[in-house]
Amino acid sequence: MDIAPLFQNKDKNELLEFLRQNAFGLLVSQGDHHPEASHVPYTIAEEKGVWYLYSHIARGNRHTHFLNEQNSHLFIVQGVDHYISSTWYDHENVPTWNYISVHVTGTVEIQTGEAALDNIKRLMDDLEPPEESHRSMEKLDPEMVSRHMHGLVAFRMIIENIEGAKKLSQNRDKKNRSNVIRELERLNNPQAAEVAKEMRNNE
């Protein structure tokens, strides 16, 4: 990710927590003639000091042909974002965009059998904790689960590098940052409100 030093987030614990709090991202791999990209659910876990990203895609997706274990793949998770009007400053300037994003790169391992089933169980357990949901993996019909498992390709990515961008008007003085927060909150827009909240949390 090419991001100005001022907007780089180098706090690994914060980046991992961001990934935990989200469950949907964009997998990008090099195809034969152009990059292939698929929007997929995911979860992350640490095992013996190594972090893994677990996910799956439909077996009929052509992207499956490019999950080459020798290649590096990119996984993008986008956080909140919003347009920042230059009219919100007390001086003439250009408009911009505030946003939070995390990029993960690494190699992938195709999973089959029990490993693939465990992959899907991890995601279900994260999103529907067994103690709270009647749709946990253990409570589903095994034959139905088996049929659906045939329709997907499970994989895990070894997280080799993680980069974060947190562009929240850090290049503005306190007065103009306050102006931006105020104007975002005035928009009565959930996305704008979330960006304003993140700006307040990072003051």
TrEMBL record:
Protein's name according to its UniProt entry: FMN-binding negative transcriptional regulator
Source species, domain of life: Bacteria
Pfam families: FMN_bind_2 (PF04299)
Organism (species): Membranihabitans marinus
